[in-house]
Amino acid sequence: MDSTELLQFDEDGPMPGQIAKENQMSGKKVKQCSEKENKYEEMVRKMKVPDLALMISVPYKLDEWFLASVLGKGKYSKIYRGRSHPNGLWHAVKVENSQRKASYASHEVSILRTIMYPKEVPHIPKPLAYVKTPSISYFAMTLLGRNISDLKLESPEQRFPSGTMSRIGLQVLHALKSIHEKGIIHRNIKPSKLMMGHEEDVKRWRLVHVIGFGFARQWAYNQDKSDPTKMHPRPLRKKVRFRGSLKFSSPNAHLGCDLSRRDDLWSLLFTLIDLNGSLPWAGERDHSILAKKKLNPEIVLADMPQSFDKVMKHLIELKPWERPDYYMFFNVLRTLMFESGQIPECKYIFESEDLTYEELRIRKKEEWEEITGTFFEKDFIEINGPEKCLRKKKEWKTPNLDEFVSARDLVIDEEMKEYRKLPAEREDYEKKKKRDVKYMAKIEREKDRTKLLYEFKPTNGEEKYEHRRAANQLRADHDLKREKEKIFGGKKKKEGEYMACESLRERGEKHKNEKEENIPIGEHLDIKKRSLAYREMLNTGEEMKFEGSPPIDDASLDQDGP
Fold it and tell me: Sign of torsion, CA 200 204 205 211?
């Protein structure tokens, strides 16, 4: 695929039908699969296949790449330190199983190629090659150094001082603005997705890089390839699944909103708070609690400088496609860096030595180091408001936290329709659910007892007696159930639900005036007498005779069933 081609991506990878469209454009004849073949492919797709990408043991030769060591491991992929045979340069090689339904590797490569065209972004690793085989798929990219999350744990008190934190924030802010203007949002910013450059790479070794574009999405696209700045936002979606990390995701993600540029800055704010110490909601997994805590400035900014108050206020007021004020965020971080007595050339907390004179001489000044902040102030794509969006402005209202729709409920939409209501209605739903579970358990017990009664064949006298006793007990229970249904009106009103709709007195008074039924009020006393007689029968071993159901004789026990 030509690097100049800008693709549109869905949240889980390239949009469906893209491959078929390319084949149609190229004139290829694609064989249509029969219904039987489609069912077979679906069955194979659902089968658990061994993840070959995670089974590779180093050293290993993969085509023209020599994999020497493991750099990291994800849920579906592994990253190796590899060297290509032709030129002998070391790169990071990311390998994943190509038999999975969604290919994160191809999606990530497409995102990276879109970001790198027409001008490279210094804080993003450069993709070099992508290969897909029937078993695995892999791609090579720029080899980077240590992880920011690991460096924080090795620092004194497991936190970064203001000078290091502010310079990391400035570089990540520069990277986010750059990818936003290419029409991409990251949706998963956190310390583990930030890496320093490799120590042997002269150009990148002190730069902070953003990695992990598996959850990235194209929020705006370009219809005119001759002018990359003419971008148009994709329409907002009303129903989206949760994307990102519970700890660092935007509060809008917990509320089930479509994510945009503002949400990457929310994640950056939470990342800076974590680098400064820890997040106050660490370990919390409930979406409603997380959303309320993340929108409370007193909780979020408890240990942060006061200058971050206006940053959070601005993020709360932003609408989905409104342009964030990158320049204001830049001024807050730049002021914090100067107040801590640091400049971009100073060493980080995790570095042992200052830069030498030779390193300072060959060092290139980056855009984020400019005091004026011209890059952060300019708006290159000019998307700021609803004038270019396809959704109405009234749909941009911030959801009410007391009546919000949780993103977790959206995933299991069919099962939790009644649960996504006010607290009082949720309590009724829980009670009804428990009542249904108890009733279904009772039905299962009756089925098991009936099955045992009819399948069991007694052989001696003692077993015949126990069998006859169990049969009479079963008949007595059925008769009692019929009598109760006459008095309480307890017939099933809904499937799987048993409700006694009226009290005994109301039901008795109702039947007192109905001559057709002619059921006296005190008939429930007869039921109690019958139950007492039944208990005596169990103690004495005698048979209990009912008018509605004849007793079981001994001759029927010798046959296949009663």
Answer: negative
Measuring CA to CA, which residue among 303, 247, 268, 300 is closest to residue 171? 268
Cis amide leading into 551 (omega within 30): no
Question: CB 383: neighbour CB atoms within 10 A?
Answer: 22
Q: Pick the closest to residue 475 from 559, 556, 554, 543 (CA basis).
A: 543
- Residue showing tokens 């059925």: 478
Strands (E), 316-418: none
Q: What is the mean pLDDT of each run of 10 residues along the chain (562 residues)?
A: 34 38 43 50 48 70 86 83 81 84 82 88 90 87 93 92 95 95 94 93 90 92 74 83 91 90 96 94 89 93 93 92 93 94 90 84 84 88 64 45 42 44 60 70 68 62 71 72 60 42 49 47 50 60 47 41 39
The angle at the Cα of 398, spanning 395 to 401, to the nearest 5 degrees, equals 130
Q: How many other CB atoms are found less than 10 A from the CB of residue 487?
A: 18
Residue 140's SS3 state is strand
Residue in the structure block whose two tokens are 């150094």:
145
Nearest to 478 by CA among 558, 544, 559: 544
Radius of gyration from C-alpha coordinates of the chain = 35
Match 């679906």 to its residue by tokens. Answer: 42
Nearest CA-CA partner of 188 in 273, 278, 259: 259
How far is 6 from 182, CA to CA, in rounded Å?
10
Domain ranges in the chain are 9-142, 145-411, 450-558
Q: Is 108 left (phi over 0), alpha (psi -120 to 50) or beta?
A: alpha
CB 530: neighbour CB atoms within 10 A?
Answer: 16
Using alpha carbons, select from 44, 111, 57, 102 the residue that is nearest to residue 75: 102
Residue 207 neighbours by CB under 8 Å, 6+ apart: 122, 123, 171, 196, 197, 366
Architecture of domain 9-142: 2-Layer Sandwich (3.30)
Straight-line distance from the first to the last Cα atom of the chain, in angstroms, rounded to the nearest whole number: 76
Cα 373 to Cα 379: distance, rounded to the nearest angstrom: 12
CA distances in angstroms from 451 to 170, 456, 477, listed in the order given: 72, 8, 15
Interatomic CA distance for residues 380 and 367, integer angstroms: 15
* Predicted TM-score (pTM) of this structure: 0.63
Q: What is the DSSP letter of 119?
A: S
CATH architecture assignment, domain 145-411: Orthogonal Bundle (1.10)
